[in-house]
Every structure is written in C-alpha cells, then in structure tokens.
Write a structure and sequence with these properties.
heterodimer, A: 79 residues, mainly alpha, B: 461 residues, 3 domains, four-stranded antiparallel beta sheet, 17 helices
C-alpha cells in the first residue's frame, strides 16, 4: 500500500515529512500501550467506583458520545 | 473574488461575493464532504460550537463552475486574528480544540488532514475551528499527515513560551507554517528532555526529521503500521503534552497597572462614566480599544453588546483579560496582543496571506485611553502621525490627553530629554484637529487628564 496514494479522489496537499511519519511508526507500539493501559485502568477503577466518573478522564476512543450541550466548552464537549 | 489566503488546499477555496464570504467545495472533495455531513460528525461538532456552522447555497455562484461540488456559506467571523496575536492560553485552547476535533473525527472514521493554527478563530469568546475542508476519510494504517504541522504550529510555540520565554511566540510571525522543530529543540532548555511529551514530539521529532531529510521514503517501514489505537495514543500524548504546559508567572509591566495608577478610584469611575456617555452618544457597531490593558474600559463597550477588541502590548495583561473572558463567559470581547509601534504586518505569499492590522480595519470606534503619551513620548511618534493612524482605522475616536504635569508623564520624561515642545493641550488639539473634528472634551474629575470624543473629518473610500 502506498500511503501517499490518493484517498478517493483527493491527494494530500501537505508534505507530511518523512521523519515525522517514521517517528509515529516508531512510537506506535508505545502509544498503543498507553491507550490500552488507560482503558484498562479505567475499567479497574470502574469496578471499585461504579458511580464515579472524572471530568478529566478520556473516554474509550472507539465510543461515540453525543454532544450534550452547546454551552460546554469545546474541550469538554469533545472529550 | 477569491480570498488571497485560500489557495493551498485543492479541496476548495473561499471567495467573496457582494460582501458575503462563501466557500467553494470542489468535486475532488466530494466523498469527504459527504462523509463529514452524513456521518453526524458535522452536526456534533457544529452544535458544540467546535466547528463553524455553514449553510449550503446555490452552486450557480461558483467562481470555478467546472470544479464545483457545493457552495457553502459559513457563519461569518467578526474579526480574523492570527496566532502571533494570541496570548499563551488562547494558543493553548486552540491546540486543545484542534486535538479534540481530530480525536472526535476518528470516531467517525475521519481525520484532520491539516492542523494549522490559522484554522482556528475566536468567536463569542471561544475558539472555533473554521476550516470545514480539513476533514478527510481515515485510511487505516496511515500515520497522521498533520503531525508535523501540529507540532510546528502549536507544541513548538507553546513549549518555547512555557519553558524558555513567552516572547518566543513572535517566531510565529517569521515562520508562517509554524516554528521549525530543530530550532525549537535548540532553544528549549536541556531540562525539557526529561518531559516525555517534549522529548518525543519535539526533540526526537527534530532528530528524526534531520535523519530522514534526504532519505527515500521508507514505504515498507511505514505502510499499514500505524494502528488506530496508536493514532489515538498519538493524539492523547500530544493532548497531555499541551495540557502540561503552563506559563511561568510573569512579572509584567502592565498586568497590575490598575493597582499602580496615580489617579484615585473617584477619577477612575469618572473616566468610566465619561467613556460610557461617549459610547452611548454615537453608538458604534464595533470598537477597538488600543492599549486596553486588562480591558477595564473595553468592557464599557462590550457590556453594551458591542463587539470589542482589547489590544495590548503586554502579554500578561492579555492573559489576565482572556482569563476573565473565559471565567465570565463574555461573548463580545476579544483580547489580543499587539505592539502598536510595530503592528502585525501583511505576511505570507505575495504579502497577501495574512492581513496587516490596518487591512483588517475599518472599525466604527477607536479608543486610545492613557496611550498617547506612551507613543508620543516613549516612542517619539509625532502627534499628527498618531492622529493620522487613528483616522485610518475608524470613524469615531475616544482619546485621552495626559499633560506633562501628570506624574505618569513626568516619569516617562525623567530619564530622557524633553524634546516634545508641542506636547501640550493646544498642540494635541491642533494635531488631531487636522484629521478629526472634536465633538466633545471633558476633563476627568480628580485628575489633570482630558477625554475627547472626535469624529474623523474625511470618510474612508
């Protein structure tokens, strides 16, 4: 697969930088572990405190939460 | 007419027609636009006021009909500001917004294909993402195309401001596509190597860029290797790096100005009432408060529902002002950093991509309170040049004259020769009288200061 191959009818207009792409792949394993640990930790904590949710917690990235209110800050809305 | 700043992305462009700003969406972007609109992502982001809402219009106004898929009319932005005019917290909020949107987009199988700080504007006191064409379908296995741009536009200036010197945000004026990471790495203190976010996204990033600068693209090494989980991890890691950055407390020249002024609370209140009366007399639709400090007098206008921009040279004052805007959820006040002796110039390709400050005028009313003596005496700007500058910005002017007998002016003159024989009330009125008609003058009770309401003599073309 050529990652610079056009996606659909579009070509990327930014030069992503070879080094910047390589670094992401180098860090990928570490970054994945970080996400999995976070999800795991949240589950563990959920068992002990089923009713407690922290505002600063990141949600599972595969979940889709609806934006509840237009009054919240974008940061809060999009967590 | 096509906007001069809108040419890089072949997905579409912005154009003006009869004073209204539209965006042409090209056929090449069709499937991405459809996914944005039909997946629910647009609805979610725009209802959260994270992405600028738009409406679709007739395509028959397209400037390039052969390429058009849609014509959209985004909600207008009252004043376009630039990252080099934002304080630390504004840039940080713009960074968090960008990452939050990228992360949310992934849940809809989309990703941001660019992460320029110029894609964010401030509207109603909050940052909002304005580039509707930044979203594209996520291709599994692909790293984030905009990673380098995000680091250059956000992480680099924020880390330099937090760890080295807050004035380094001005590098954004020089490097219009963000601060190069090798330069950032060299300018950051050694201790920043101990910060995992800065170590990986700045220092290692700069080293990897250097290593692969002339290398062939290692297709096999990269293709399909970046899982979605890793991509989420990357965005989270950037988010926590950005969130951990805090500005060291600054001792600023102006941040505590109002605790140091020489006039009593009564005079301060008298000045506020007079400013209020002047504003109510002419009822401007927009106000620029130049030298606004933390926005004490800007709020006289913004609290009346008048969109107001509070410019100040002092970063600490703008930070404090922005903190108040956020805390009180103020919607009509935008604090910005600006050095009036060297205002934002026209920048970028053909000097047309980013507008200078005067190009973003006119405004209905300019306020210049406790400002003229600084420009005239500390910066040797002749009074007539000042009057001409203000007249180029707006129709109405509220300006304060502070005579040499005032202790603030005495302080400015204490360390230098007085080469300003014309800096008198008569000299001031004569210089400003060349460009403005003086409608009203009013001494501020309890001080030696005089407040003027003026109207420009000549209409701008």
């Amino acid at each position: 697969m050529n990652i610079f191959a056009p996606i659909g009818k579009l070509t990327h207009y930014l030069d992503p930088g070879t080094g910047s792409m390589v670094l992401q792949v180098v860090l990928a394993a570490l970054l994945s572990v970080g996400v999995l640990l976070k999800v795991f930790w949240r589950k563990i904590r959920g068992w002990f405190n089923p009713n407690k949710t922290s505002v600063s917690d990141e949600i599972d990235p595969t979940e889709i939460a609806e934006a509840e209110s237009a009054q919240l800050s974008p940061e809060d809305d999009l967590k | 007419m096509k906007l001069h700043s809108s040419f890089r992305d072949p997905s579409g462009f912005m154009f003006h027609q009869e004073g209204v700003l539209y965006r042409q969406v090209n056929l090449s972007y069709q499937e991405h636009y459809d996914q944005l609109m039909e997946s629910g992502l647009y609805r979610q982001l725009s209802s959260a006021r994270a992405l600028i809402p738009h409406e679709e219009c007739q395509v028959n106004i397209a400037p390039i009909p052969g390429k058009v898929y849609k014509i959209i009319k985004p909600e207008p932005i009252a004043f376009v500001s630039y990252p080099y005019e934002w304080c630390f917290d504004q840039l940080k909020d713009a960074a968090v917004l960008t990452l939050s949107i990228a992360r949310r987009a992934l849940q809809y199988d989309m990703i941001l294909k660019d992460a320029s700080a110029f894609n964010v504007q401030f509207q109603n006191g909050r940052p909002i993402f304005i580039d509707t064409l930044s979203f594209e379908r996520y291709q599994p296995g692909t790293p984030w195309i905009a990673y380098k741009q995000f680091c250059q536009h956000f992480l680099a200036p924020l880390s330099l401001m937090a760890k080295a010197d807050f004035r380094l945000n001005q590098l954004l004026r020089v490097y219009i596509d963000g601060i190069p990471l090798d330069l950032t790495s060299a300018l950051l203190p050694k201790a920043s190597f101990l910060n995992p976010g800065l170590l990986s996204h700045i220092h290692l990033h700069a080293k990897t860029q250097k290593k692969y600068a002339d290398a062939e693209f290692p297709q096999e090494q990269i293709s399909g290797k970046m899982t979605k989980t890793a991509l989420v991890g990357l965005l989270d890691s950037l988010l926590s790096a950005i969130r951990s950055l805090k500005l060291k407390s600054q001792k600023t020249e102006w941040g505590n100005y109002y605790e140091q002024t020489n006039y009593a609370q009564a005079a301060f209140e008298a000045k506020r009432e007079k400013v209020n009366a002047f504003i109510l007399r002419v009822r401007p639709r927009s106000v620029w408060d130049l030298g606004a400090n933390t926005g004490e007098f800007s709020r006289v206008a913004s609290n009346l529902g008048i969109p107001t921009i509070a410019f100040d040279i002092d970063h600490g004052a703008v930070q404090r002002n922005y903190a108040m805007v956020k805390q009180d959820k103020e919607t009509d006040l935008l604090p910005l950093c600006l050095d009036l002796t060297n205002p934002s110039p026209a920048l970028g390709w053909n000097c047309q991509e980013r507008l200078s400050l005067p190009e973003r005028a006119p405004v209905d009313m300019v306020m210049a309170l406790a400002l003229v003596h600084h420009l005239a005496i500390s910066n040797n700007i002749p009074l007539e040049n000042l009057a001409s500058f203000f007249a180029g910005l707006g129709r109405w002017l509220i300006v304060e004259f502070i005579p040499k007998s005032d202790s603030q002016v005495k302080r400015l003159l204490s360390s230098r020769q007085d080469i300003f024989p014309d800096y008198t009330k008569a000299g001031f009125e004569s210089a400003f009288g060349m460009h403005f008609e003086i409608l009203e003058e009013s001494p501020i009770a309890g001080s030696e200061r005089i407040l003027y309401l003026m109207e420009r003599k000549q209409k701008l073309d």
